Structures are given as structure tokens and as C-alpha cells.
Amino acid sequence: MTDDFQGWERRDKPPTLFRRFAFAQYAQTRAFLDALSALSEEVQRHPQNINFGTTYVNVTIGAADGDVLSAEDERFAGRIAALAGRGE
User: Fold this and answer.
1) β-pairing, 8-11 with 4-5?
2) What pTM was estimated for this model as a whole?
3) Quick check: 58 and 18 in contact, CB under 8 A?
């Protein structure tokens, strides 16, 4: 994985992926959060941390095993990025 995997920033201690998603309007932010919630329930995997404002959402994904970021973590990040692409 590169340091800019689909816009995600790798952080090593602890191993996480971080990305800030920006939106033009609150309705887009809300739609992204709703879609992220549905995806998380579907795959039974949730981001380690989510915080948001009117037109942005910060998402942090922790390593599934707590030690090393895996291909599974990358796939989850990719699916989240795809959700944001629908509303950006």
C-alpha cells in the first residue's frame, strides 16, 4: 500500500488509515454518514473513529488485528472511499 492509498494517510503508531472527506453541503455529509453506517453493518466492521462537522467527515480505520494493516483493511478503506465518491 502506498502512503496515499486512495487518499488515505497511513499512520504507524498505532497502525491506522486516516482520511478526511469534504462535502459541499450538509445533506451530502449526512448521506455519506448514513451510507457508512449501512456498509459497516453489512460487513460487520466499523471505523475506529469518526468525527464530523457540517461539511466534512474524518474517518480512522484501525488494523483489524491491532498490529498490522492488511489487505482487508485496504478493501474496507476502498469501499468507504467509493461511498464518498457518490456524493462529492
Assistant:
1) antiparallel
2) 0.88
3) yes
